[in-house]
């Protein structure tokens, strides 16, 4: 249908899929007229058919406020639903309706699979037809009969960060690992933009690496390394903000490893100030 046709539709059921924070945020956007072709009217009824899982209560309350401000009515199907996973009775109903020959519990930790298998046995499925598979284990069937469960695939944990296709090289995760184990050191200094003379600093800040009050000689030494590197590059007419910061980073990292046996994230900052 064209946009003009959509504008003429009045009585319609709109299904919006999703759960948790993204869904409730989308509903707030609809209530605030931030989504094209959907407006909430006083006669509209908004039915929430998803559980309000822990951690999204604030977003849900904001959505409620936005909908009521638009004059909409809100109906929650069941306030006692706390999970998207089936209950014991849900599983029993599914087994009763489908009457499977073989039953393979999926989704969840091994103890949960076992609990699921017990329900299937209570519903009359023979124990030898209930197959509990560990991660990577393969059930092989031939001519409708179970042949083997001996095959296992080699699986490894995969760490993900953010959305799909973000940080494919794992740089962000590697940075987090360094921050969690070796900490970070930030060195800041101000120099004259024209003459390149030091006019402010260096200032050294450290987190998760050393206790500064007991290691003042370290902060003094890294500040000296920063000053000397800048002065030497300016004297040799080889100063470049980016390259000089890289040189400082390398020198300070080597010094810190020698002193602390750690490889923290070193972040030099050179501010070129127009006086």
Could you describe the 3D structure shown?
Helix content is 39%, strand content 16%. It has three domains: 3-76, Metallo-hydrolase/oxidoreductase (Rossmann fold); 88-148, no CATH class; 175-273, Ubiquitin-like (UB roll) (Roll), CATH 3.10.20.580. The chain has a three-stranded mixed sheet. A two-stranded parallel sheet has the order 1-2. Strands 3-4 form a two-stranded antiparallel sheet. Helix 2 packs parallel to helix 3. It is flat and about 85 Å long. The chain is of the alpha/beta class.
Q: Treating each run of at least 4 consecutive H or I residues as one helix, how many helices?
A: 8
Helix percentage: 25-40%
State the CATH class of the largest domain.
Answer: Alpha Beta
If classified by CATH, what would the architecture of the largest domain be?
Roll
Number of strand segments: 7
- The oligomeric status of these chains comes to single chain
Strand content bin? 15-25%
Distance between the termini: 63 Å
Structural class from helices and strands?
Answer: alpha/beta
Q: Per CATH, what is the topology of the largest domain?
A: Ubiquitin-like (UB roll)
Quick recap of the structure?
The protein is of the alpha/beta class and 275 residues long. It is built from 8 helices and 7 strands, in the order ααβαβααββαββααβ.
Task: Give the arrangement of secondary structure elements.
Layout: H1 3-8, H2 20-31, E1 45-48, H3 57-69, E2 73-76, H4 88-98, H5 110-122, E3 140-142, E4 145-148, H6 171-181, E5 184-192, E6 198-207, H7 216-235, H8 241-260, E7 265-273
Parallel strand pairs: 1-2, 5-7
Antiparallel strand pairs: 3-4, 5-6
């Amino acid at each position: 249908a064209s946009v003009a046709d959509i504008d003429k539709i009045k009585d319609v059921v709109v299904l919006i899929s999703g759960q948790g924070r993204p869904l409730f945020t989308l509903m707030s956007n609809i209530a605030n007229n931030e989504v094209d072709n959907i407006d909430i009217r006083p006669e509209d009824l908004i039915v929430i058919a998803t559980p309000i899982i822990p951690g999204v209560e604030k977003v849900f309350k904001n959505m409620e406020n936005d909908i009521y401000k638009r004059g909409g009515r809100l109906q929650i199907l069941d306030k006692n639903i706390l999970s998207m996973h089936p209950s014991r009775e849900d599983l029993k109903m599914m087994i009763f309706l489908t009457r499977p020959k073989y039953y393979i519990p999926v989704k969840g930790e091994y103890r949960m699979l076992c609990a699921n298998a017990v329900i299937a046995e209570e519903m009359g499925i023979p124990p030898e037809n209930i197959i509990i598979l560990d991660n990577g284990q393969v059930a092989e069937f031939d001519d409708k009969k179970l042949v083997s469960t001996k095959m296992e695939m080699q699986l490894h944990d995969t760490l993900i960060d953010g959305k799909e296709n973000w940080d494919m090289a794992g740089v962000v995760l590697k940075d987090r690992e360094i921050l969690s184990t070796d900490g970070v050191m930030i060195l800041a200094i101000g120099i004259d933009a024209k003459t390149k003379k030091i006019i402010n600093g260096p200032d050294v800040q450290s987190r998760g690496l050393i206790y500064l009050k007991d290691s003042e000689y370290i902060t003094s030494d890294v500040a000296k390394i920063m000053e000397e590197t800048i002065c030497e590059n300016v004297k040799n007419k080889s100063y470049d903000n980016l390259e000089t910061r890289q040189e400082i980073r390398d020198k300070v990292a080597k010094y810190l490893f020698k002193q602390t046996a750690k490889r923290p994230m070193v972040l030099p900052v050179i501010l070129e100030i127009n006086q």
